[in-house]
Amino acid sequence: MADESETKLSRGNILVVDDDSLIRDFLSETLNRSGYNVELVSAGEDALGKIRKADYDIILSDIRLPNMGGMELLQTAQKYLPDAKVVMMTAYGTVQNAVEAMRLGAFEYVMKPFSTDEIELVIIRALDQRKLELENKLLRSEVMGKYGFDNIIGRTPQMQKIFELVEGVADTRATVLITGESGTGKELIAKAIHYHSSRREEPFIRINCAALPEGLVESELFGHEKGSFTGAIKQSRGRFELADRGTLLLDEISEISLHLQAKLLRVLQEREFERVGSGIPIQVDVRIVATTNRDLKELIEKSKFREDLFYRLNVVPFHLPPLRERKEDIPPLAQHFLKKSNQENSRQVEGISQKVYELFMEYTWPGNVRELENYIERAVVTAKGRILTPRDFPKELSWGQIRSSSEKIEVGSTIEEAERKLILKTLKAHDGNRTKAAEILGISTRTLRNKLHEYGLNDAETDKV
């Protein structure tokens, strides 16, 4: 019996509301036999009492009920069980009733008498639709969490100001321009703006202006009509249409041609555009976020970017600092990427050694946050132990520390003193491993040994570096 009950519950919970006992008995027998858990009531007031206390996947309700009618029950049910699917039944069907029921939110409208197959098909479709909507809601919730501030690491004052600005402008129509070096997280901030706005349930569409051939960018942005150019075998919607009511991210906006800049300016001004090969204007409601890793003012001076477009884009400017200017964020970022890499690659690396953190803090990070994430993932995948050590990272990371340290050599030092300091720093970065140190320095291990002897450094001393 327990197995039977579990099977019924797994198919879905259904509330049947009908004052006709024959219909109630028919639906009870039909739906129970199919494995559903069914409850029966004869009046709208009784149904309302159950809806307030229990959860139902489907509500099957007659339109004509004593006292509280089916339409009133439909509206009340949606307040208490917004995810439930309501199917209206009637023996007196009219087009007007059907339209009104659908307008008020009914999933389906069925005419009595109906067959077993007919009602089972309606129930299956309703449950499938409910499952899809719940999955989408869960996905949106996960996406919101992913782009929430708790998952965008930034403890420095610069990043905290950016978070405050995101909160302030997210729920507006203002165009946003995000600048910063490659790998600083410009797209992450763009998505945070979208998912903190009232457009969060509408599309977030991205186009990388630098990744497409110049001849295709216009078609990708605005779409095209069939036959408008060679290869246009059917009508295609562009990114602006796809992003209607949502947000369009124009990534690397500096890379589009002056010709397209003029067309883009018109869209920003008029909120309308035309597909390639069409003269019919299409109106859209799109929030624009643009990003670039280049200095647009410098491009304007070189006549490579339109000044009027710049001012249209630069309504709310964001500038993301490079990682070398926010090094306090490196430890929490590294821990975040360690956890993420463990999950994605089924690894169990437990931590990062202090010597690795010292390397991280000395390195200049030309690839910024993206480079840090890549280093962590590579180390997690290839690590032999439970703790990441300098040996798990490529030599260029150590060289970054050596180069940074060598820059601190005092003015007036002799070449011999500078060379001696550089050799010691290199050995320290590689835990005294002479083979690796020699490789980094570009000399043979024999030459390195001779240099150490020349500077009076014995094995015991170099082992301590």
Detailed description of the structure:
The chain is α/β, with parallel strands linked by helices. It has three domains: 2-140, Rossmann fold (3-Layer(aba) Sandwich), CATH 3.40.50.2300; 149-321, Rossmann fold (3-Layer(aba) Sandwich); 325-463, Helicase, Ruva Protein, domain 3 (Orthogonal Bundle), CATH 1.10.8. It has 21 helices and 14 strands. The strands form four sheets. It has a five-stranded parallel sheet, with helices on both faces. The protein has a five-stranded parallel sheet with strand order 7-8-11-6-12.
Can you describe this structure in just a few lines?
With 465 residues, the protein is of the alpha/beta class.
Q: What's the tally of helices?
A: 21
As for the number of domains, it is 3
Biggest sheet strand line-up = 2-1-3-4-5
Q: Which CATH class of the largest domain applies here?
A: Alpha Beta
- Tell me the CATH topology of the largest domain: Rossmann fold
Strand percentage:
5-15%
User: What is the name of the CATH architecture of the largest domain?
Assistant: 3-Layer(aba) Sandwich
Helix content: 40-55%
Averaged pLDDT:
84
